[in-house]
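Q: A reviewer asked whether we had any structural model of the full assembly, not just the individual parts. We don't, so I'm hoping you can provide one. Inputs are below.
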Amino acid sequence: MNLKELYQEIILDHGKNPRNLRKTDNFNKDAKGHNPLCGDKVHVYLKLDENKKVEDISFEGEGCAISMASASIMTDLVKGKDEKDVKEIVSDFLQMIKEKDEIQTNLLKEDEKTKLMCLSGVKQFPMRVKCATLSWHTLTSAIDRSQNEINTENMDL
Amino acid sequence: MNIDNIKKEFPIFNNKVQNNDLVYLDSANSSQKPQLVVDRIYDFYTKEFSNVGRSVHYLAVAATNLYENTRVLVQQYINAKDKNEIVFTKGATEAINLVANTFGQKFLSKGDEILLTELEHHSNYVPWHYLRQSKGVNIRFAEINENGDVTIESIEKNITKKTKIIAITHLSNVTGAILPIKEIIDLAHSKNIPVLIDGCQGAPHLKLDMQELDCDFYAISCHKMYGPTGLGILYAKKKWLEELPPYQGGGGMIREVKKEGITYGDLPNKFEAGTMATAQVIAFGESIKFLNKIGIKNIEKHEKNLTMYGEEVLRKNNSVKLIGNPKNKGSVLSFTLDGVHAHDIATILDEDGVAIRAGHHCCQILHDKLGLSATARASLGVYNVKEDLDKLNESLKKCIKIFNG
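A: Here is a predicted structure for the entire assembly that you could use as a starting point for your response.
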């Protein structure tokens, strides 16, 4: 285990000053996520334009540095992307957190990939993986409107 | 057995945890096990194993005697009037479910009220909640005060003509508040209301006397009491056990089974259906002997001193905010740290071998009331020493350094 890998400067920064921590005006999609074991909660708001592009994304919630930073970085990275690409990025991120070593999608720039890779340290802390993935699952749910509330206990990470 | 030197009785402390000496501050969650208890399980399975209460062969008779011997040890430890007032369950959770289910079935109907407190662990709320759905009963919560205490006044205020049972914790697993249960029981009995005490946190740390306390039900978690997992105890007054219907049906709990109908066995068999956690029960006898050897008064004193020391150390740390300041406090130190979420604290402490719990500790009602989504909790047991609390404080300083520079 390596704490320094987990709590990198960028994580601490996003954890303390989360970007897009607010509620989007006139959002047209949203979903709530909850980790019942630790009490972390997140509410993701999306505003898609007529071309299904993310015009705005924001979140409200509370949680640990990992979950806040993850949500913050996520909202930064998917802004401006279209719905299909957002889903690819989410899927790529979730695979990276679970098993793969790197972010592979070409939809992100190198510096954006580096930002996401900062969360890869979570892999060494199995109990904390859910903190990092909660907001991402919630984003998927908002896009799909598949579930009213994401519950980390009912899913494979 | 000297409490100052008790750590050596617990083999877990001989091992390094991720290259660190273990500083175990999570006993409210579950306690570590003395070698005697671990050995007893091994010995039972290797030399003495048989199911209890059924066969007539030598091993079965011996195992039955050992099993029943623990019942007597528990009876004496909590000073119950009769050994048949001790029912083994799979945990304190099952003990409370047993009462909620059978008491609810027999005595509760639409509009009746159950009185809990805001301090309750989910295991002393969820089982009663089922009765809201199945019976249409209402649940009231006696409120905490600013110290995280539930006072007798708060209980009294919430008792109505419809209150049918009061179910309260002995000792809060978050604020550490020790409730005035004797006064509450006396008050309830003056109004003919039975009382269930969730003793998960009380039993491992406080002297128990069921006859003096006069409670109707007392639930115990054995794994928090230096005993094995998978085992709990329901103490219930004999009149209740006689009056309540069985909880689960199966072998061992019957008297006669006919196609036309069934009669149930005597106490406590009526409530012990199926093969019980035999090895755990027998090993728990060693836990009781272990507690007796140290002496509950010595345990109370040791843990009180440590708790006071812990509070003193943490109060000196300006970033720490202790949760609750109850009049009588058990060995639980819940806190928040400025700018650091409880889960991050727990992860950082873990790297130093300091094991604490972070989250809502199965008390969401209380955390909602406190306006906190999560707290960190250090909880103590017989094996803790002052140095453990110093280490906790050192690691907390490291958290602050990582987060606030």
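A: Points you may want to mention in the reply: The radius of gyration of chain A is 14 Å. DSSP finds six helices and four strands in chain A.
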